[in-house]
Amino acid sequence: MTTTDKPAQTTGLPSMSPTEPGAQTMTLSVGPQHSGSGHMRLIVELDGDIIINAMPDPGYVHRGIEKIIELRNIIRSIPVIERPSIIDASNLNHAWVRAIEELQGVEPPARGQYLRCLLNEMNRIMSHLYWLSIYGVFLGHTTMFMWPLGDRELFIDLAERLTGARITYSYLVPGGVRRDLPAGFAEEAHPEQKASAYSRASGLSPSAPQDQPCAGLALTGTCGRMSPTRHMES
Amino acid sequence: MSLSQEREESLVKTLKENFPRDIKEATILRRSRIDVTVAPDRMVEIATFFRDKLGFDHPSGVSAVDYNREARFEIVYHLSSIRNVGQRDIIVNLKESVPRNSPRATSLVKIWPGVENYERESLEMFGIQFDGHPRPEKLFLNDNWDGPPPMRKEIRFPTD
């Protein structure tokens, strides 16, 4: 099926053999372990400091999700679909569920669409907070790792109340969502109680104005202007 | 942004004017989503037209679909635009069909270098040969994989 025996010269790409003496360029492996997330090797051809070619070697990371769900019925495909990106599970699931609905000619009711939007938006913010915190780890900044993850925990709690799961929800199903808004959710989602509890726990509000309900949370300032107050007010 | 589909309609019109016989089908799915099916032997010209005249400089993905009951593979290039700000939200699905018993298409690496690894994936997963591809080798599969292309519909792996 493939033509692995092709000589490197005809493809114009470097071979993977060690650099020969007298060669103009040097072949270097970057990875598979490196400071970035996940395993990935780049075979880089260098001419001095200049990269003239780079070949990716992603490793055995293909999960064959399409093939796995070919053999399942639709409702059982939903937990699988979320797996490639668990930090943004519901948005991934949304595309899949919408595709099924389009094939079936089904439109979910307005309440279901609102609930999807609610979880998707919370999940999106969680995802941003996650990369920001992992980015902090890469920079070797432990505090920057902790603060966004602390903020993310607020949304994880809300998602748990809404769906019963913290990270992979399987909440969106063809035709709507898996269950309705639980009683008392709106009160819990109200930012004032959350934020005041958070700022008490973190002890972060000495200089913040006390009349602002979310002062402690806004002070962490981890994601641009995002804070529960601003997000939920609009 | 308005909900009108003027941009999509003018894109389809331009395409049909320039390639009256080679565009088999051009459908506006909804706002900012267009399906274009073309004849495989004219793919390179039409792709070049997309890049140079319509400003679609960014292929955001290439996938293959196995229509085994119709004995064909469909190769889908998802095109979008970075330079042309006015159509950044538009995604064109540029499609061609190749027969399932001899799946062979022309590689578009010369037009968009970014499709190189996507085409490699279609090669190993569906067995579609891309003529002119600079590196037609495995990407994700084990080096010692000697089975059939695993994403084809007739292949079954036991799951549970």
C-alpha geometry of chain B: globular
What gyration radius of chain B follows from the Cα positions, in whole Å?
17 Å
The fraction of residues assigned to DSSP E strands of chain B is 25-35%
Structural class of chain B: alpha/beta
Major sheet attributes of chain B = 5 strands, mixed
CATH 2nd-level architecture of the domain at 6-102 in chain B: 2-Layer Sandwich
Task: Detail the poorly predicted runs of chain B.
Answer: none
User: What strand order characterises the main sheet of chain B?
Assistant: 1-2-5-4-3
Largest sheet of chain A: 3 strands, antiparallel
CATH-defined topology of the domain at 6-102 in chain B: Beta Polymerase, domain 2
Shape, principal axes of CA atoms of chain A: flat
Q: Main sheet of chain A: which strands, in order across?
A: 1-2-3
Mean pLDDT of chain B: 91
Number of strands of chain A: 5
Mean pLDDT across the residues of chain A is: 75
Structure commentary:
The complex is a heterodimer of chains A (234) and B (160). Chain A contains 10 helices and 5 strands, in the order H-E-E-E-H-H-H-H-H-E-E-H-H-H-H. In chain A, the strands form 2 sheets. Chain A has a 3-stranded antiparallel beta sheet with strand order 1-2-3, with no helix packed on it. A two-stranded antiparallel ribbon of chain A has the order 4-5. In chain A, strand 4 and strand 5 form a beta hairpin. In chain A, helix 5 runs antiparallel to helix 6. The longest helix of chain A has 29 residues. Chain A is flat, with a radius of gyration of 24 Å. The termini of chain A are far apart. Chain B is of the alpha/beta class and 160 residues long. Chain B has a domain of 97 residues: NADH:ubiquinone oxidoreductase Nqo5 subunit (Beta Polymerase, domain 2). In chain B, a hairpin with a 2-residue loop joins strand 1 and strand 2. The longest helix of chain B is centred in the N-terminal third of the chain and has 13 residues. Chain B is globular. The mean pLDDT of chain B is 91. Chains A and B meet through helix 2 of A and helix 3 of B.
